[in-house]
């Protein structure tokens, strides 16, 4: 935010001068297209247009070192602390007859167990990977939801570090599980040479499958999560910013602001849904990749 | 304007992880995964497992109790059926016995009846014979007395007198039978 507003005034100032020296008053009246520049000119102080700069805020601590601490890390740290403290309290007070809060936490654990693990690995084989998958789901979900918490306003997964590390964790896990099950060559063979295919096809298939296993899977996991969170942040900021700008335009445009506000609320709800959905998809795909690596036959 | 600002932070930078970003992400991920997998999940799983064990134990116990109850009910039903059968048999036997007793009693009564009847009849016969003999003697004497008185002559000749009396009596009897 700070980075954006730091550069925005300069840009807006140059644009603000344009309508003044450009068309004559009569033309301005007729030309509605020029309204948008004037809008920009008037709202340069509070219409925050989201930029990618939001994801690269200025450093707060340790600037210039490897431990440079900026707003994104602060958001992550707050979410991490909040979730961990909450979870530890719930876990340490866990009783046989659960209270309301404990039931909610158990609901999340059961959701991962029943809807992700049971459907892919099976509850029995999946027991080994259950802690990892549940951890992943809860971590991604809480980091995603930071994007819709007022004041934090930025998903912890909307900067590449976390999605990338999670995806690499998935990669290491499924490759490890596959190698432990089939041996190194056996695993490569199982993943790249699905049986029942005539041998000339293998010439084409092996590089594709190899690329898929080694790069595409974890890269797509990373980019899917990252892009969803980045886009979500952009959309929320655009709609809330637009509502704000329209409402304070002091013009007939105020009449549209309720619609923009409704859209903003709708997008907000949608982002909560996307946060849960992306956590689910990430965990689900991890489970599927592990299942593919450890299964006997394709 | 948007284009102009994108120049300051180009889009590809989103996909390039900076070292500090990786360092902090790794720290957060390790802390979270460590605490979650070493403390939170084992505790929660322990509670969940214990609960499912309790529930399963409860269900098994309930099944056992149900089985026992079924067994008991079966036994009881069998006993009841046996008792009913026995009761029916006893009733049947009682009825048969009763019938037999009644039959015997009736037979005995009939025999007794018969006996009494025949004894009575015999006694009656004997009495009648005795009476008729006695009567015959007395009537004979009376008649002979009367006749001797009427005739004036003693019917001393026993042979004749007896013949006369017998004829008289026979006449009397025959007249009696015809009038009866």
From TrEMBL, chain B:
Report keywords, A-Z. ATP synthesis, Cell membrane, CF(0), Coiled coil, Hydrogen ion transport, Ion transport, Membrane, Transmembrane, Transmembrane helix, Transport
Q: Which GO terms describe its cellular component?
A: plasma membrane; proton-transporting ATP synthase complex
The keyword Cytoplasm appears for this protein: no
What residue ranges are annotated as transmembrane?
A: 22-41
The principal location of this protein is: membrane
**Segments forming a coiled coil:** 55-93
Q: Which GO terms describe its molecular function?
A: proton-transporting ATP synthase activity, rotational mechanism; proton-transporting ATPase activity, rotational mechanism
**Keyword Signal in record:** no
Alphabetized Pfam families for the sequence: ATP-synt_B (PF00430)
List locations, semicolon-separated: Cell membrane
Q: How does it sit in the membrane?
A: Single-pass membrane protein
What's its job? Component of the F(0) channel, it forms part of the peripheral stalk, linking F(1) to F(0).
Assembly, per entry: F-type ATPases have 2 components, F(1) - the catalytic core - and F(0) - the membrane proton channel. F(1) has five subunits: alpha(3), beta(3), gamma(1), delta(1), epsilon(1). F(0) has three main subunits: a(1), b(2) and c(10-14). The alpha and beta chains form an alternating ring which encloses part of the gamma chain. F(1) is attached to F(0) by a central stalk formed by the gamma and epsilon chains, while a peripheral stalk is formed by the delta and b chains.
Q: NCBIfam families from the entry? A: ATP_synt_b, PRK05759.1-3
Q: Which family does it belong to?
A: Belongs to the ATPase B chain family.
Q: What name appears for this protein in its UniProt entry?
A: ATP synthase subunit b
GN (gene name): atpF
């Amino acid at each position: 935010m700070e980075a954006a507003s730091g550069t925005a005034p300069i840009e807006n100032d140059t644009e603000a001068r344009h309508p003044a020296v450009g068309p004559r008053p009569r033309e301005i009246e007729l030309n509605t297209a020029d309204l948008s520049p004037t809008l920009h000119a008037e709202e340069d102080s509070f219409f925050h247009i989201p930029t990618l700069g939001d994801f690269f805020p200025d450093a707060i601590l340790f600037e210039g070192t490897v431990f440079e601490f900026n707003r994104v890390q602060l958001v992550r740290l707050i979410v991490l602390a909040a979730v961990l403290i909450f979870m530890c309290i719930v876990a340490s007070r866990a009783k046989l007859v659960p209270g309301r809060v404990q039931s909610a936490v158990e609901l999340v654990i059961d959701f991962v167990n029943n809807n992700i693990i049971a459907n892919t690995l099976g509850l029995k084989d999946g027991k080994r990977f259950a802690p990892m998958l549940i951890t992943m789901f809860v971590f991604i979900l809480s980091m995603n939801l930071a994007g819709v918490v007022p004041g934090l306003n930025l998903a912890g997964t909307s900067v590449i570090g976390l999605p990338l590390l999670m995806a690499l964790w998935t990669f290491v896990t499924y490759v490890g599980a596959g190698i432990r099950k089939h041996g190194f060559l056996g695993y490569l063979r199982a993943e790249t040479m699905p049986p029942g295919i005539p041998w000339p096809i293998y010439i084409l298939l092996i590089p594709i499958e190899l690329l898929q296993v080694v790069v595409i899977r974890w890269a797509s996991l990373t980019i899917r999560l990252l892009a969803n969170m980045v886009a979500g942040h952009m959309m929320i900021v655009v709609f809330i910013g637009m509502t704000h700008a329209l409402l304070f335009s002091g013009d007939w445009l105020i009449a549209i602001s309720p619609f923009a506000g409704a859209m903003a609320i709708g997008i907000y709800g949608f982002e909560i849904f996307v946060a849960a959905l992306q956590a689910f998809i990430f965990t689900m795909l991890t489970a599927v990749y592990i299942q593919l690596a450890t299964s006997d036959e394709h | 304007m948007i284009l102009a600002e994108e120049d300051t932070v180009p889009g590809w930078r989103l996909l390039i992880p900076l070292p500090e970003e990786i360092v902090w992400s790794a720290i957060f991920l390790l802390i979270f995964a460590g605490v979650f997998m070493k403390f939170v999940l084992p505790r929660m799983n322990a509670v969940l497992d214990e609960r499912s064990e309790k529930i399963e134990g409860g269900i098994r116990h309930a099944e056992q109790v149900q089985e026992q109850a079924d067994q008991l009910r079966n036994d009881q039903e069998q006993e009841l059926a046996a008792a009913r059968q026995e009761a029916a048999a006893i009733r049947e036997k009682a009825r048969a016995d009763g019938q037999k007793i009644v039959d015997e009693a009736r037979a005995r009564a009939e025999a007794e009846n018969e006996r009494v009847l025949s004894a009575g009849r015999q006694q009656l016969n004997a009495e009648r014979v005795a009476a008729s003999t006695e009567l015959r003697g007395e009537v004979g004497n009376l008649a002979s007395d009367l006749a001797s008185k009427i005739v004036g002559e003693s019917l001393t000749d026993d042979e004749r007198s007896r013949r006369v009396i017998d004829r008289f009596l026979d006449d009397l009897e025959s007249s009696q039978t015809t009038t009866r």
